[in-house]
Amino acid sequence: MKKESLIRRMLFVCALFSSFIVFLIIIFLLQEGAPALTWDFLTGMTWSPHNDQFGIIPTLVGTLYVVFGAVAIAIAIGIPCAIFLAEFAPFWLRNVVKSSVEVLVGVPSIVLGFFGLLIMVPFIRNNIGGMGESILAAWIILAIMILPNIITISEDALRSVPQDYRTASLALGATKWQTVRKVLLPNAMSGIRAGIVLGLGRALGETMAVLMVVGNPEIPWIPTAILDRARMLTSTIAIEWAYMVWGSPHQHAIFALGIVLFVLVSILNLVASFVIKERTTKR
Amino acid sequence: MTDDGATKIETKNLSVSFGKVHAIKDISLKMPRNHVTAIIGPSGCGKSTFIKALNRMNELVSDVKTEGEVLIDGKNIYDESCDVISLRKRVGMIFQKPNPFPKSVYDNVAYGPNIHEFYEKKELNKIVEENLRKAFLWDEVSDRLNASALALSGGQQQRLCIARALAVEPEVILMDEPCSALDPVATAKIEELIRVLRNDYSVVIVTHNMQQAARVSDYTAFLYLGKLIEYGSTNDIFENPKSELTEKYLTGKFG
Amino acid sequence: MNPRQTEKAAKVGLWLSAIITIIILPVIVAWIMINGIQMINLDFLTGSPYKFEYGGIFPQMVGSLYLTCVCTLIAAPLGLASAIYLAEYAPNNKITRIVRFFIETLAGMPSIVLGLFGLEFLVHYLKLRTSLLSGSLALAFMILPWIIRASEEAIKTVPNDYKDASLALGATKWETITRVVVPASIPGILTGILLGMGKAIGETAVVMLTAGSGLETFIPSGLQSPTASLPLYIYKLATQGHTSEAMSRAFGASLVLIALFMSMSAGALVIRNYYMKKLRA
């Protein structure tokens, strides 16, 4: 029995260590980034490392602009696709799409970024306008990245609606589509909402794919058009880390960006978990 | 109470509660060696809890409180000095739903022996064959010992579970409604097996099927709402029940 | 429009969304294959980068594999042990909830933030420098929560019946876990590990800040040596290269990366199907 309690303790230490990592991350981020978390930082309109100016508003707005747009596109394609998979797809096609989606989830973001850089950007430049590197390009590439997440979660939400609801609706003479719109979707809404929030979280944290297509102007401005280039929290860190001087205000500002990112993503995760909780208690 | 014969298991004022719910209250019972004792009663009367108290399987549930004593060969198994692991070697259990491991037939039977001691391959082969024979299963599986146990029929799986339990050389075999998930043919085979097992083991069987109790057991205990209502030799209980409650249950007026 | 017409229109929209979804992956993979296949020759696969846009990608391939393997060697045992604790031993109290919460938070961590942490903690604070070790550790942190999630789920799915049977035979809890529960949950655990490896091999941001420049011309000689990786190499060539040589090498490297990634995904699917069949007997 002594062996058993020793084993239990060792396993506990492993679990504790795993959770401790986040704790370490928070501490070290704060250590380096807190000095830069000033009022000027959070509300400043100019980001210019050369002049020691670190205002994140343009970058923050750029990030939100890109993220929300991408999620909107992913929803517009993803939810219909989820409905298709859950309610309308023939069996073999469902498996094909599901496998495709499962693999798409893990495709290295650098590959998608590469695709965006070489195909999306010139396409936009030649057929729509602007420099090609734009918020629009980021929307498309980012939407591709989070599409699988939206689809999987929405499909699960739809599938878990009890079969009884479907049969009742059809027995009353409704068409399949009416059943979906009026009965299934409302019922699956909280699950779908959770998926959207999680998708937002993933989009916020995505670095490489957007980095290569979004433009990253030297001195960011608040974007006003979808053909504008923009800066994102993630891409700023990825570009400027290489030439920040250790110990300088620039370095602290970069870490402060990391803190802002972390806080935003954590808030989204918390919201998502509340949405999921609400769903399980409602039932 | 039983008249003679060495008592294998005795419970003294056994009570078990889960949180605020009292599952069994104050049960004192003597179960004799090398005989089959049946525990009958309507659903929810505590039969399962009672039998699980005999090998301390109730302790897997949190929030459980056990009072009283359970003596096996005179020693209280709830005593601090008693090792649960070796207790469960001496007291084997067959469950309501057959639960062979997702391994081969061979590995299922060999599981118990492998845990307790190191055996050489030849010895292990012998052990596996011997116990499969004891469980009336050898003829049906001897050519597919390496096949998955999950491919067997329900009745075969249950007999495999019995072989698996026999392989650790227990003294007592507890059976918690072993046939309730099986068809009549499979049930008959297992009942036949139980009748033979009594020669070498002490068997306690929980069943909701009165006729089964009448068929296989030597002694029967009737439980109702957690209390022991009546206990005696099976013939006495079924032909001359002393309690009115017992009579009502046996004639099907409830349960 | 009456309901029947609406239904027809809706069906068209739904089919369209499905088609768009299906073609994305093959289009991208095909594009990479078409453009990258001409680079795939022995020189490319066994040579080292030369003057930025020439040469081969051998150090990059080896580097990626080393990083992935070392990171898995760190994350898999730790993750499995944590999962076993959470699934089988953890009481339902505050500490467990906190542990779970932190692990979930780690799962949602943006990779660039993990990269920053790796840079500060591993490279500077622990003085591990830009190296195979730093990169592997940072990657291990990244995939750890996914391995824990997949393993915990797999373990939880094992029916209690098996555990009851094992305990009733006189096995200890640990024996039951090692001889019955974990073997029964191997498919889920392996799938989780393989998917984690897939994540690690395709990761750029983390290795950018901890493992190396991506353009190394040597294979790592030890844990302390800087390590190249395919994703980082692709990034550098795609964004800083302007010649067709640079681009074609980026394509070639992308093709190799996709191939490695796909084989891990395929491996995960194959394992899952094989064990599904075996368990169903």
Structural features, described:
By secondary structure, chain A is mainly α. Chain A folds into 2 domains: 1-34; 56-282, MetI-like fold, CATH 1.10.3720.10. In chain A, 76% of the residues lie in helices and 1% in strands. Chain A has helices at residues 2-33, 39-43, 57-88, 91-106, 109-127, 135-159, 163-171, 176-205, 208-211, 233-240, 249-282, and strands at residues 47-48, 53-54. The longest helix of chain A has 34 residues, at 249-282. Chain B is α/β, with parallel strands linked by helices. Chain B is 36% helix and 26% strand. Chain B has helices at residues 47-53, 84-90, 105-116, 121-134, 138-141, 154-166, 184-197, 210-216, 234-239, 244-250, and strands at 7-18, 21-32, 36-40, 64-72, 75-76, 91-94, 172-176, 202-206, 219-224, 227-233. In chain B, a hairpin with a 2-residue loop joins strand 4 (64-72) and strand 5. In chain B, the strands form 2 sheets. In chain B, strands 6-7-8-3-9-10 form a 6-stranded mixed beta sheet, sandwiched between helices. Chain B has a single domain (7-250), classed as P-loop containing nucleotide triphosphate hydrolases (Rossmann fold, 3-Layer(aba) Sandwich). The longest helix of chain C is centred in the C-terminal third of the chain and has 37 residues, at 244-280. A two-stranded antiparallel sheet of chain C has the order 1-2. Chain C is mainly α. Chain C has one domain (62-280): Orthogonal Bundle (MetI-like fold), CATH 1.10.3720.10. The termini of chain C are far apart. Chains A and C meet through helix 1, helix 3, helix 4, helix 5 and helix 6 of A and helix 1, helix 3, helix 4, helix 5 and helix 6 of C.
